[in-house]
Amino acid sequence: MRVIRYDRQYSRRKFLRDCAAGILGTGVLCPLAQAIADTGTIEKAYPEELLSIEGFTKGRIKTGDVIDASNVEHVKDLLEPVRYEQLLKLGRRLKTLPTTRDAMRLSPWEYIEATLRNAGKAKFDAKGNVVNAADGEPWIGGNPFPDPKTGLELFAAQTLNWGRHDASTYAFKEFEISGKDGKVRFNYAGVWAEFSPVARVVLEPKPYWPEHKDKLRYQTVCFLSPTSFRGTSFLNIWDYDHSTFPNLYGYVPEFRRVRQFPTTQRFEPLVPGSSLYLSDAWAAGDPLHTWGNYRIVGRGPFLAGLSGNWNPSHPNWECGVHGGAAGQSFWDTSVELIPETIIVEAEPLKFPRAPISKKRVWFDARNNAVVGMLTFDRRGQPYRSFDGAYDLYEKGSDRHMDGAHPYWSWVHVTASDIQTGDITRLNQVRVLEGSHRSGANDPDIYNKYLTQAALIKLGASSA
């Protein structure tokens, strides 16, 4: 008979005790950041009962099983309330995979190397901006707070570099599902581009692009279909000052010109039917200090997609769907037991007309990536949810490379409006129209997507 030394109740008590006492370091048996730095794995930081779904559920659910309405009660505590309801009532399903123990598979390789190399070198300056402690210059790369002690540190790292690459292009397909009949109301396709002029770990010059060192990010989304929205694009230019709103420019093909839009209207869909806002991007779509009262409200294990979701068997990486009234509501998704997540709440400060009173976000303690978000309306009622799946794009002999290493990125996203039942699904695909390809660290991304001239060119080419 196996004697369990550290069972799930021990871990639960420790998480609760540490939160109540204000002890915010991650890990149960030893500090997680130290375990990763020493061995590259998470195994020394957690008991076996937090490293497998079998151990946590005492064998009620095993690796390879599918979680659905028949067994979801065994893992209710591992889900945010929206996914639980979708599993219970709407036919959503989740396939279970082993817990990823190798930390080098949970983020881009160079980002992890920079995180380990620059550990302990970050601080907040007098304005609340993340800077290099040695010289007060902008951050130099990787996660500035790999062993987070506050909710602000977690959100600061997330806001600094959404996709964890110096530059990223995501070709995507988007589907808007009606809450009334479960059918697809709108189909969109487009490209989302991100470019970091600071904290660079791959692109030259490193760690800054000198003439753009005062900027945090350039980000564009351009729609390629349907025909009525073809060429519509938006460009966000973020200052490095974490309290300053981005400049927002848009190109509308009917007017054939770029115009500036109010940048504070970040809680409206960019296209009809969408349940996704600019503010939702990576759960940190607004500058850090336009939100406030960041606070850690809980810790514990969680189920989310960190592996096994990339679909190389489809020539364009498109994922299967299931569930809902018409079988179109949810992505086929694989999830794993995350030994520890950190749950953070925050409130909008600089949005007087925001329809949201607060957001609650789950961060994976292994890599500090966002694995779930729930927002609340002004009455304090659950409003909208955001959950996604990541992967290292390596499956058997199939690989999509990012330089010397397999590409790491998001695979698909599900955004749900709880009050209407509407759902937005996004899938990162390999290529659209031949020239718009998903990938990372291409220096040509800036000129192709991230200037006002680029918006005009994209609009003209779509005419």
What does this structure look like?
With 463 residues, the chain is an alpha+beta fold. The chain has a domain at 163-461: outer membrane lipoprotein receptor (LolB), chain A (Clam). It contains eight helices and 26 strands. It has helices spanning 8-21, 32-39, 53-57, 81-89, 109-117, 151-160, 445-449, 452-461; strands spanning 66-67, 94-97, 122-124, 130-132, 167-177, 184-195, 215-225, 233-239, 247-252, 257-261, 291-304, 321-322, 330-331, 334-348, 356-364, 370-377, 382-392, 394-395, 398-399, 401-402, 405-406, 408-417, 423-429, 431-432, 436-437, 439-440. The protein has a 16-stranded mixed sheet that branches. Strands 3-4 form a two-stranded antiparallel ribbon. The relative contact order is 0.16. InterPro entries: DUF1329, TAT_signal. Pfam families: DUF1329.
What topology does this entry show?
Layout: H1 8-21, H2 32-39, H3 53-57, E1 66-67, H4 81-89, E2 94-97, H5 109-117, E3 122-124, E4 130-132, H6 151-160, E5 167-177, E6 184-195, E7 215-225, E8 233-239, E9 247-252, E10 257-261, E11 291-304, E12 321-322, E13 330-331, E14 334-348, E15 356-364, E16 370-377, E17 382-392, E18 394-395, E19 398-399, E20 401-402, E21 405-406, E22 408-417, E23 423-429, E24 431-432, E25 436-437, E26 439-440, H7 445-449, H8 452-461
Parallel strand pairs: 2-14
Antiparallel strand pairs: 1-2, 3-4, 5-6, 5-23, 5-26, 6-7, 7-8, 8-9, 9-10, 11-14, 12-13, 14-15, 15-16, 16-17, 17-22, 18-19, 20-21, 22-23, 24-25
Radius of gyration: 21 Å
Helix content: 10-25%
Secondary-structure-derived class: alpha+beta
- Count of alpha and pi helical runs: 8
Which regions are unreliable across 5 or more consecutive residues at pLDDT < 50? none
User: Any idea of the CATH class of the domain at 163-461?
Assistant: Mainly Beta
CATH fold-type name of the domain at 163-461: outer membrane lipoprotein receptor (LolB), chain A
CATH architecture of the domain at 163-461: Clam
Largest sheet: 16 strands, mixed
3D shape: globular
Total beta-strand segments: 26
Mean pLDDT figure: 93
Distance between the termini: 71 Å
